[in-house]
Specification:
5% strand; elongated; two-stranded antiparallel sheet
Length: 83
Amino acid sequence: MERHGHPRAVLISYDAYEEVRSPRQDKRRAEAREMPRQIQAQAEMLNQDLTEEESITLADQLSHELIADMAARGEITCERDRR
């Protein structure tokens, strides 16, 4: 299938599809797990006047908002959404 002269789809076996899909999902999951740590470190750096507890709370809130935004855009899928 082509669109404007560029391939848009291919037909492959399900096993081949799983081989391609699994590493991509693993990468997205790893990135999603790392995001809160990065946000927390950045929040601590930018808000050195906050207590550690305030900084953790802020990082937690921001990471939840970011993950919710990514899920709303369909960029990630949460395990709880699959049930």
